[in-house]
Each structure stands twice: as structure tokens, then as C-alpha cells.
Automatic annotation (TrEMBL):
Keyword tags: DNA-binding, Transcription, Transcription regulation
Chain ranges of the HTH arsR-type domain: 6-100
A molecular function (GO) term: DNA-binding transcription factor activity
InterPro entries, per the entry: ArsR-like_HTH, HTH_ArsR_DNA-bd_dom, HTH_MetalResp_TranReg, WH-like_DNA-bd_sf, WH_DNA-bd_sf
Keyword Transmembrane helix: no
Domain of life of the native organism: Bacteria
A UniProt-annotated Pfam family: HTH_20
Presence of the UniProt keyword Transmembrane in the record: no
Family matches, as NCBIfam families: HTH_metalloreg
Name the UniProt record assigns to this protein: Helix-turn-helix transcriptional regulator
Length: 100
């Protein structure tokens, strides 16, 4: 892979990240996960943010595709957590700013 290809891939990742974070609901999901410092059940997050299952599913998918979260399924339950590596690589310090 050339430097230009690598740079283009990273830029595509950055675009996905910023698009994902541009939505207030998704930003609140990130904030909740950061404050919890652990994974949360998707249903719990939906209830806390008073969003429908279909809306929550859309937001979780967008965050996952941007690499900001990971999802784990256990039976019928899905659990989501922050992908710390993505924040460390592309947005160092961003999560700490959510406390302010």
C-alpha cells in the first residue's frame, strides 16, 4: 500500500468519524459509554436517550461503521462499548472533553 493510499484510507476513516459525531444523539451515546467506562446494553441506551429501537439501531450501526464503537451479541442482547483505539488514533483527548 502506498503512502497516498494509506492517507486516503485514513481520510475516509476521519470523514466517517466526523459524520458520526455530528449527530447529537450519537454524541450522547458516546458520552454515556465514556461515563460508564464499560459496555452498555443497546436497549438500556435507547431507554436512557428515549429513542426507538429502529433509531437506536441506526445510530449504533453508524458509530460501529465509523469505528467508534464495537458491538457484542449475547443471545438476544447486544452490548456496545467504545473502541478506545480509534479515539486514541484519530481523536486523542476528545473523550476527556466530554466531561466539560
Amino acid at each position: 500500500m502506498t503512502i497516498e493510499e494509506l492517507s486516503n484510507n485514513q481520510d475516509e476513516q476521519r470523514i466517517k468519524i466526523f459524520k458520526a459525531l455530528a449527530d447529537p444523539i450519537r454524541l450522547n451515546i458516546i458520552r454515556l459509554l465514556y461515563q460508564k467506562q464499560d459496555e452498555l446494553n443497546c436497549g438500556e441506551i435507547g431507554i436512557l436517550l428515549t429513542i426507538s429501537k429502529s433509531a437506536a439501531s441506526y445510530h449504533f450501526r453508524t458509530l460501529r461503521e465509523a469505528g467508534l464503537t464495537t458491538t457484542r451479541k449475547v443471545g438476544q442482547n447486544k452490548f456496545v462499548k467504545l473502541n478506545q483505539e480509534t479515539f486514541d488514533t484519530f481523536l486523542p483527548g476528545f473523550l476527556n472533553s466530554l466531561d466539560k
